[in-house]
Each structure stands twice: as structure tokens, then as C-alpha cells.
Amino acid sequence: MNKKNINLGIWCLTFNCLLIKIFIGFSNILLHETGSSSCLALIFSFAVFTAILFIVYFFKRYFILSLKNTYLRNTIFVILIGYLISHNIYFIYQLINTINNSAYPNTPLWIVLTLIAVTVLIVGIRDFSSILKLHSICVPLIIIGLIIISISSIKYDDIYNALPVLGNGIASTISSGFKHLFAFSEIIVPIVFLTIMPEEKSKNINRSKIILYSAIIGAGIYSIFTIISLLAIPTDSVFVAENNPLFHISRFSGINRLNTRLDVLNIIISITSGILYLSTSLAVIRILMKKIGLPKNSFMKTTASILVLLIGIVPLCGCYDNRDIEDTAYAIAVGVDKDENTGSLIFSFQFTNPLTTGENTDPQNSGSEESETENKSVNNISIDADNIFDGLESVKRFIGKTPSLSHLKLIVFSKSITNSDGYLKNICEDFININDVRPETKICIASTDTAKEYLYGVNPSLEESMARYYELLFSDSSTTETLQTNLRTFLIKLTGSSGDGYLPIISPDGFTGAILFSGEIPKIELSNHECQIINILLGIERDSIFFTSESTNQVYKIKSSSPNIKTNIENKKISAEIETKIFAKKNQNGSEDNYELLYEDLMNDSKNLIEKIYQNQCDILSIGKFAKSKFLYEYEWKNVIQEKENIINIPTVNINLLY
Predict the structure, then answer these.
(1) Mind telling me which residue stretches traverse the membrane in this protein (predicted)?
(2) Apex CA 149: angle with CA 214 and CA 26, to 5°?
(3) 540/477 Cα distance (integer angstroms)
(4) DSSP of 503-516, one letter per residue?
């Protein structure tokens, strides 16, 4: 390799050694700091560790390599070997947990781990130039993948979740920084790597220092942005995959329908980064052992080759995990009810039936009028279970097929679920912890007595595909008269400071309104007209809303921009002023007086609705998050919200009508 390629390889190797720590949990530990003080703790620990490395770098160059006492030098090398071996054993344990928590159901993990082991052995016995070349090829691709995931998650970020800035104070931030110095411990591997590189490849020591520290700084900056991204998407107790913090971001990322594909991309990146790190560590250990006179290079290569052959035999067992589509049942909707007598949950699964041989019809009444109105394109099955995981296992035993939620379009809750303390949030968390379930799956509340009754009763007259029917029903153009949400958005509302959540109410005939929540408690039910007003005030991006003015009895095509919210805090009371721009166009010709009447209708409806909502303590406009940004410390904000009732005064609404 020429000097330019060597320098690129060293930069990529150093960057990857820091990057892999992000995948195996250090940022998750730092997130225990309140607010964005976790970023400050990370910067502090990064500065301290970099200073230590700067000293070590000169120490290894001017002391270790110049030691004439062979015994002392070999002792140092033995200590390094012991550290790297023990560190890599723990690293492998963390990597396995990461893959296990992030992998999709039915993934043959033991084959994945076998292939990782084979790859690490093959690469680890190569020379320095081969390892640097591999890093030069793989790390830029890894960086591109991470950029795609990060950019696609921006629309779901809310930087207000990262506030207050200093968390619980400077002292806690500094102590956390000292506590988590290990966050950059993987950087020791490239330091040792540079130490033992052949002399002819490391003559330009100044250039190597610049490359090394630019990579460290680059990875440190990326780590900080990772922390900010994780803070901007609240994930408290929402995900199982805590050992892979970036998995949160990939689950909250999305390019149209590619959400789950970004999950796969994240898993591939973490595995590739782990392979590169372990291969480098193995190469460093091998060279260190060679330097102190342990087994010769040929012996190590022979041993590694035998291990590769033995391990390589393991996955050569054919398609053992092959699963035909006939063995899988795809659920397109799930209803959740609560048995008031036993307290257990009732899960109603609606499975697609492409052959239209539904099993709901009673054979004895096949000619009756009732059977003719039943939906034969789906099979509905109801199961009593404590949670969705037990429900899936029960369904599997009942139908003799493996149920899959990869095509799930809709989750329907009954009102009894929403009225039960803690049930709704726990159930939503269970659903989003199933990797097959897409985060953008639509959720709603059934207007009927039970969710089961809705799923069993829905039967579109023209659309034969129920999956397509649900997609059309919940499309932007079909939901201008309700408040549309999905699993991801609703959980963000429940777990973060981005305002209170809402769920649309659905009946077999369409939407009938929405329910607003205060925290996890349902408070008020809105009509379709009131939902229209909320959509206008929130400036939700969707097709134009057709608004009927009561004064003129005319229909107007309306679009609105995101509201400008100004907050003020006085005597532990939050006051707010909301200003929004509304663009209106009448379907028929009319005078400007009609627009003035429209303005009066919008102002009156908005003021009355906002007063009704905030009297019931539902922060649908997310005023709380804007107020939180005015505080520097977390305890100051908590002192304001400790009395949860009526901390937000009725906001003032100003509408700027353009036509």
C-alpha cells in the first residue's frame, strides 16, 4: 500500500474502533443523565481520555519501542495481550446481546455468529496492509449507511426533549464523565496497532498523529450527535434493544415504507463494524505473541485455518430454516380488549385469506343472509392472553401456522383498554418491541363496544383486499376529519415532553372523532369538526382540508402552516400565545365579506376548542416542551410541574387568514 492508502486505512481503523462502542451500549448508559447533560458528560470524558491517549502515544513511541530490556518490554506486551483477550471476550458477549436483541424473529443466530467467527479468523491472520485495505473499503460504506439512517430520522426528532441543558447540575455531569471514561477504551487497539506496525510503514510519525487524532475527534463528534439524536427521540422503557442504542434511531427512521429495511441496515452495520474490530484485535494479539516469541506465524496460520475449516462445516446443513409461505399466517389487523370479569386481555387477530376461504362462516348456515354479509377475505381468531407474546404463541398452537405481524396495518383498542391505568402504554410498548411490527402501524379506538366487534364486522363492499382497505382508510386524504396517529408517534407523545397524545375513533362506517389524552389518561372526546380545527391549528401536512363555514354555509379549501408558539412562565403558571397562518380558497365565487365571516368562525371555533382542551389539561399543542426550554436545570423544571393540575393557562390564539 502507498502512504495515502495507509493513512486512509489508519483513519478508518481508528474511527471504527470508536464507532463500535456506540453499537454495544455506551450511549445508552450515558442517557441516564437528565437532559443534554449526557452530551456534556460525553465531551468531558472524551477530552480526558484523549489527553491520556496523547501521553500514551508519546510514551509508547519513545519508551516501549526503545526499551533495551527485553524482559520489561515483553512484560508490557503480555499485559497488553491479557487486556485485549479479556476485553474481546466481554466485547463478544456484548455483540451477541446486541445481535440477539436486534435480530428479527426466526433469524438463525447461530449461523450468523458462525459466519462472524469464520470471517474474524480469516481476516485476523492477514498482514497489516490487508487489514488496512479492508477498513478502507468497509468503513466508508458504514459511514454512508449511518448518514442515511440519521437523515431519515430527522423528521421524528424533537430537540426540545434534550433540554434542560445542564441536567441535574455541573457536578453530576463531571462525575458522570469520570464514571464513563471507558466509553473510548476501544481506541487502545489502534494505538497498539500503530505501535507494532513495521518500521518502514510508520516513519512519518507526525502524519500518523494527525490521522490518529482526526479520527478520534471525528468519532467523538459523531458520538455526541448520536447522543443528541437519541435524546431527541424519547425511548424511555420503550425498546428491548437497549444494548444497541442506534437501533432506537433506525426504528424511528423511515423513507416511505422502508422502515424495517433501515432496521436491517443498522444490524448489518453493527455486525460489520464488530467483525472489523475483532479482526483487528486478533491481528494485534497475534503480532504481540510473535514479538515475545510465542507460537510462530506459520503455527498461528495453520491453527486458524483448521478452526476455519471446522467452523465452516457447521452452516453446511442445507436450508434447515426454510419456511414456506403456506406455513405462515399474516395478520393485517389486531384488536385488543379487556375482559372485565377476569381482567385478562383478549387479542383478536385478523389474518389475510388470499384464497377467500374464510373460516368465520358457519357451515350449517352457509345459505343464510348472515353468512353472505361476512367478510370471506379474512379469518378472525380471538385469544385470551396476558400479553401479545403469549397471544401469538396461543394462535400458533391453535391454527398450526406461525403468525407474522410483518404486514400488520392496524391495531384497534377498545375503550375499556384506554380507561385502564397503564394498560395502553404497556401494550403499545409490547407491540413496538416486536421487530416484525412497523413503527408506522396505524392505531385507533373502536366506537363499538369491543375491538373484536369492529374487526368481525368490517366488510368493505368494493375493496377485496383488507390490507389495501386499511391503507386507503388511513391515508392522509381520508383522515382530514380526524386526528391520525401511529404506534411510533403515540409512544413518543406518551414517553416524551412533546405534548399529549390522541387516538382516532373508528366505526365500520368510518371515523367518528378522536379521544385526547392527558399523559396516559383519556380526557375528552372530540367530534369530526373539532378534529378539523385541531388539524388546522397544528398545521399538519396533508391534503387540503375542506372546511364548512357555519355563517356562510359555504365550503372552503384550507391549508395551514405550523403554529408559532411563544411561552411565558410566571408564578409556576405557563402562559402561551399561538399564532398560525391559514390559507383559504372558496370553491365558489364570493365577496370578501364571506372571508371575514370565515375568519370569525375559525377564531370562535378555535378559542372555544382550545379552552375546552386545556381546561381538561390536554397539552395537544405541546406548549409544555416550549416552556421546558427556558430552564437550565432539570430540578427547576420539575419544581414547576410538580403540581400537575392547571399549570398551563388557557392559551391565546391568533389567526392570520390569507386568501
Answers:
(1) 7-29, 35-59, 71-96, 108-125, 137-156, 176-198, 210-233, 264-287, 299-316
(2) 60
(3) 12
(4) EEEEETTEEEEEEE
Cβ atoms within 10 Å, residue 351: 23
* Cβ contact 408:351 at 8 Å: no
Q: How many CA atoms lie within 13 A of 430 on its CB side?
A: 16
Q: Is the backbone peptide bond immediately before 522 cis, with ω within 30 degrees of 0?
A: no
CA dihedral sign, ordered 540, 541, 542, 545: positive
**Better pLDDT: 400 or 347:** 347
- For the chain, domains (ranges, CATH) are 3-313 (1.20.1740.10), 327-357+374-523 (no CATH), 527-659 (3.30.300.210)
Stretch 81-100: mean pLDDT: 81
Question: What pLDDT, on a 0 to 100 scale, did the predictor assign at position 332?
Answer: 92
Using DSSP's 3-state secondary structure scheme, residue 193 falls into helix
Q: Which helix (H) or strand (E) holds 33?
A: none
> What string of DSSP letters covers 484-504?
--BHHHHHHHHHSSS---EEE
Burial, 237: exposed, middle or buried (Cβ in 10 Å; 0-12, 13-18, 19+)? Answer: exposed
Q: How far, in Å, are 46, 186, 222 from residue 40 at the CA level? A: 10, 20, 14
302: left (phi over 0), alpha (psi -120 to 50) or beta: alpha
- Give the pTM: 0.74
CB 349 within 8 A of CB 334: yes
Q: Mean pLDDT lowest for which of 61-75, 163-177, 589-603?
A: 61-75
CB neighbour burial string for 112-145, b if at least 16 within 10 angstroms, e if fewer: bbbbbbbbbbebbbbebeebbbbbbebbeebbeb
Cβ atoms 472, 478 nearer than 8 A: yes
* Phi, psi (deg, nearest 5) at residue 657: -90, 125
Task: Check whether 318 has a pLDDT greater than 60.
Answer: no
Positive or negative: CA dihedral 383, 385, 387, 390: negative
Q: What cell was used for 476?
A: 392522509
DSSP 413-444: E-HHHHTSTTHHHHHHHHHHTSTTS-TT-EEE
In the chain the first and final C-alpha atoms are separated, in Å, by 66
In sequence order, what DSSP letters do the residues of 65-93 get, joined into one string?
Answer: TT---HHHHHHHHHHHHHHHHHHHHHHHH
CA-CA distance, 619 to 562, in Å (whole number)? 16
Neighbouring-strand partners of residue 545: 558
- What's the pLDDT band for 366 if we cut at 50, 70, 90? very low
- Residue for grid cell 402504554: 425
The answer to whether 605 touches 533, Cβ cutoff 8 Å, is yes
Hey, which of 46-55, 94-103, 414-423, 445-454 has the most confident mean pLDDT?
A: 445-454
